[in-house]
Amino acid sequence: MLQYLSAGVFCLLTCTLSAQPTVRLLPLAEQFNAPTDIVADPRTDGQLYIVEKEGRVQALDTIGGTKTLWLDLSESVDDRSEGGLLGMAFHPEPDSAYVYVNYTQPSQLSRHLVTTVARFSLGVDGSPNPASQQILLAIEQPATNHNAGDLAFGPDGYLYIPTGDGGGGGDPFDNGQDPSSLLGKILRVDVDKQGVDPTTSEPRKYAVPTDNPFVGSEDTLAEIWSLGLRNPWRISFDRQTGDLWIGDVGQNEREEVDFQAAGSTGGQNYGWNCREGFSTYSGSTDRYCGDTEKTFNAPELDYPHRGNDGVNGASITGGFVYRGPAANLQGYYIFADFAAPRLFFYRADLAEEDRLTVRSDLPLQSTSTFGEGRDGKLFVAHFRSGTIYLITGDGTTPTTAPARTTTLAVYPNPAREHLRIDVPTDFTDRLRVVLYAADGREVMSQLYPAGSQQIELSLPNLVPGAYTIELTAGKRRGTARLTVQH
To answer: Out of the domains of life, which is the source (predicted)?
Structure first.
């Protein structure tokens, strides 16, 4: 029988909403194009860098309220599907003159993408030299989704690189558990040294730390720090404790937060695709799941895609443990969900019933990333509008809990080209309909006037399969599972 190590809160259908932190979102003056990362300048207070999916990095002066183009990789970046310029990190040494980026470029071997981790040199004015690019790592992707894309330096000075499972649905390539694949993992490398590829004997522009957990293994790649991940969309280190937090996007049922305490020796296996959150993944055909000796590490917490009195979502966006100036937010791990207007607050040191709270009354939609300022201030990005918000703890925004989710009446179901939705009588505000694919991607969004009693929906050319349809009106929310056939 598969073993599973429990380490946290199991939020199945019983998560409660305790007294919620007072919080306010303050929009910054400038807007951006599909932001995927927010990075602080390590030398200058008030200076942020906003990474944009299509391949540009904008420098934002939050004090003066101006932005300037800082780095343009758009001619190299392939931003199809979930690809693009996805992450950036400055070298942690104060006198270092390097910045690292994670992006996808077109593959020369297939019609898919190549995950590329590269380094650029910085000039004396702190600007990157576009001609200085050095590629550290290139990983062929078997599909265009699940590219992960974050970068983070740990307290140990090593670079941590989260990778997705290679895409598709349900990890059809078995990468999450495959010890010979760099996909579905967190990698840990030393960018201050050069090494040699043990397979080709070719030099490479990074070294493997000697204390990585699988150094010397005959069947597991030495770069691997932890494995069993689906699409770890944003990781972060707690700047006070050094703990590592991971937001891993789920498949059909669960979203999860994984945790590694500071000083961890690595080697964790978070179970995908044998597990999804705390649950067994029912769609698994992975050849590794039958290994009765395999030990999986439980997530710190998970939450479902449906129901649960609004403590739900469909595509987690990992955040940060708050260490900024707002005293009432101290110690909360703050994260969000791309597919639902949620801001989550989690503290493991509270009573179990108070650990996880949620705010659904804030102007958040399509939350794509978080970022810390040099002073610990926390920022969050709205992907579609391009708005960056400062999260403060001095607001008086109401702390009302979300209403219970309603099950919608939709027909026909299965559907082909058209769909009808009966609008519940208490959905009196302006209506928004969103259709989500099984992997949490938003594939359609439309607005309808308040007072509508029925919605006639023309379906786009969708791939046959399972979808989730969501109807919102103010704080009211309804969902239904939908099958699309040709």
So the answer is: Bacteria
Strand 406-407 to strand 476-484: parallel, antiparallel, or no bridges (unpaired)? parallel
Taken as a whole, the chain contains a residue count of: 486
SS3 425: coil
* Selection from 484, 345, 472 nearest residue 402 by Cα: 472
133-173 pLDDT, tens digit each: 999 999 999 999 999 999 999 999 999 999 999 999 999 99
Q: Per residue in 319-332, pLDDT tens? A: 999 999 999 999 99
Tokens standing for residue 385: 């509008």
Name which of 130, 78, 137 is nearest 107 in CA terms: 78
CA distance 183 to 202: 21
Q: Which helix (H) or strand (E) holds 336?
A: strand 333-337
Distance, in Å, from the CA atom of 395 to the CA atom of 21, rounded to the nearest integer, reads 10
72, 289, 386 from 231: Cα distances, Å: 26, 18, 23
Provide the b/e sequence for 50-72 (b: ≥16 CB within 10 Å): bbbbebbbbbbebeeeebeebbb
Report the distance separating Cα 385 and Cα 185, nearest Å. 31
DSSP state for residue 267 in the 8-state scheme = -
Please list, in sequence order, all residues whose beta carbon lies within 8 angstroms of the beta carbon of residue 334, skipping any fewer than 6 positions away: 319, 320, 321, 322, 343, 344, 345, 346, 370, 378, 391
CA 141, distance to chain mean position in Å, is 18
Bridge partners of 427, per DSSP, are: none
Considering only CA atoms, which of 35, 27, 158 is closest in space to residue 87? 35
Among all chains, which residue has been given the structure tokens 């996909």? 183
In the block, which residue shows the tokens 């991607």? 441
What predicted TM-score, i.e. pTM, was given to this entire model? 0.79
